Amino acid sequence: MTSQRDLTTTELFNKIISNTPGGAVVVTLGAAACTYLLVSSFKNNNNKIGWREVPSPKGSVPYFGHLFKLDEVPVKQFNKWHEELGPIIKVNMGVREWYSIADPLLAHQVFNINGKSTSGRPHATFMTECYALGGKGIVAGSPSTQFNKTRGAMLQVISSKNRASIEKLFNPDVDAFVEKILDITTKKGSVNVLEPLHFTSLNVILTACFGKRIESTEDPLFKEITSVMSETGRRAGPAEEITSFLPIMGIVDFLIRKKRNMRQFVQEKRDPLFTQLIQEAVEGDVDCLAKSMLAMEDDVNEFTNVMVTMSDSIMAGTDTSAVMLQWAFVILSRYPKVQQEIREELDQFICEHRRLPTLDERESLPYSISVQKECMRYKPATMFGLPHECTEDIEVSGYHIPKGATVVSNMFALHRNEEFYPNADKFIPDRFLNDTRAMHQSANSSAEKRDHFNFGWGRRVCPGAYLAELEIFNIWVRVFAKCVIKPPLDGNGNPIYPDIDTIINAGIVTPPKNPIVRVIKRTDALL
Ligand code: HEM
């Protein structure tokens, strides 16, 4: 998921206009409005008799819909509309109809009970046609035999049965991460955990996918991967994919030869990088996802399918885990007593076993597990997860959602639902004290039994949830066994508490504004 900052609607249009041969835009937008008015006057009414109409906010304008109503962080406006109109709303994103769901039970009905009809992905020129090479891999494709088998292969390889071998590969990086944040704090007085977490998270995925790690941010491979990732994120973003919302802008895309340009990027930058990584993985002696997939049955092992799946994993798995951990650092810097309880519980395990616990032993750390889950509930890593597409008309709670609609789960509203989470606006560290279940297992339960909804839904539920949980757990126990997290200090020695109210729109992910803390070495560490 991308680390590129999203654009406001106004910025987005300015950018399009500045990149486009002048008159074309004016002609295009004029034509767009006329075409829309003409077409919409012939359009059938989607509301079937006897079904409730999904409420839609006021202020939708022809062709552009509600796009001009959205600000830098669209989910905030969506939430205001949900407060006014209820748990399901229809927002016109240009010509696309987005149905946003803010209630866990309703979301379960939409994405799980009706999963057969709501598990498509909306078509996008870059992601579907260019990046996914016409539907390969997992993220951008719609369910097919190859898609199901590829997801299955990933779940089989990145699973608890391979826990020990996966974490053995990445734990040296986690140890290095802890040393790095301690060292930076010693030298500079505080540390911005964004970059070290991004680097560590990338290495976790690289070791799982290719059995390979990067030594430092100066490594040319690191620079190449981050450049390809950020270019992929930019091209998948709304400014570049504007034709999905305003198809008439396809004329502009044609004039600036956008699709050819997208294909060129994939062929000249993305494909050679991943081809090389996969070849090195095959020649190496470390077990990894790429190698395992290439050794599997026909539907999975086709080279382009493996290549896109590896790219999916890096794109979907690096920033999401890093953002979750950034939030944990900034939240916990404000809660010294919570950290003390985390340390006491962890130290008890270390005293008994003379080593750190593994994820399989999470039952011994109910408080830590509860705090991890509460951090994820309190500050979700994404705004809307990834959008799904309805491939058939469906009916939920009397509402009709038509074929072709985009359906999104509103992560912020879902996690502040008072019926599911009493005092939802409060950070309650022991909220999940009686729920030490693995998060990836919980993610596959019915809504009432889930801890949180960060890993999405149904047939598309995040296949990397186990790896994410493994990474989070291993970083967590190493940090709290050795360190105390504190807020940075101003010139007078007063704490500057990190801002936990501002949410940044960084594409799909929503990181904190300035994840700057002090990480101090524990003087009473047992290991
Ligand atoms: C805290 C960390 C993570 C969060 C919050 C997260 C969240 C999500 C969400 C919300 C989705 C969309 C689900 C849906 O469409 O309903 C998703 C999909 C996906 N995630 Fe994750 N993810 C995380 C870590 C990872 C990791 C580590 C990997 C790497 C293996 C990964 C790989 C994927 C893939 C391949 C998909 C696409 C699934 C599909 O389209 O069927 N994720 N993730």
TrEMBL record:
<dbReference type="GO" id="GO:0005506">
    <property type="term" value="F:iron ion binding"/>
</dbReference>
<keyword id="KW-0479">Metal-binding</keyword>
<dbReference type="InterPro" id="IPR050364">
    <property type="entry name" value="Cytochrome_P450_fung"/>
</dbReference>
<feature type="transmembrane region" description="Helical">
    <location>
        <begin position="20"/>
        <end position="39"/>
    </location>
</feature>
<keyword id="KW-0349">Heme</keyword>
<dbReference type="GO" id="GO:0004497">
    <property type="term" value="F:monooxygenase activity"/>
</dbReference>
<keyword id="KW-0408">Iron</keyword>
<dbReference type="InterPro" id="IPR001128">
    <property type="entry name" value="Cyt_P450"/>
</dbReference>
<dbReference type="InterPro" id="IPR002401">
    <property type="entry name" value="Cyt_P450_E_grp-I"/>
</dbReference>
<protein>
    <submittedName>
        <fullName>Cytochrome P450</fullName>
    </submittedName>
</protein>
<keyword id="KW-0560">Oxidoreductase</keyword>
<keyword id="KW-0472">Membrane</keyword>
<dbReference type="InterPro" id="IPR017972">
    <property type="entry name" value="Cyt_P450_CS"/>
</dbReference>
<keyword id="KW-1133">Transmembrane helix</keyword>
<feature type="binding site" description="axial binding residue">
    <location>
        <position position="462"/>
    </location>
    <ligand>
        <name>heme</name>
    </ligand>
</feature>
<dbReference type="GO" id="GO:0020037">
    <property type="term" value="F:heme binding"/>
</dbReference>
<keyword id="KW-0812">Transmembrane</keyword>
<dbReference type="Pfam" id="PF00067">
    <property type="entry name" value="p450"/>
</dbReference>
<dbReference type="InterPro" id="IPR036396">
    <property type="entry name" value="Cyt_P450_sf"/>
</dbReference>
<keyword id="KW-0503">Monooxygenase</keyword>
<dbReference type="GO" id="GO:0016705">
    <property type="term" value="F:oxidoreductase activity, acting on paired donors, with incorporation or reduction of molecular oxygen"/>
</dbReference>
<comment type="similarity">
    <text>Belongs to the cytochrome P450 family.</text>
</comment>
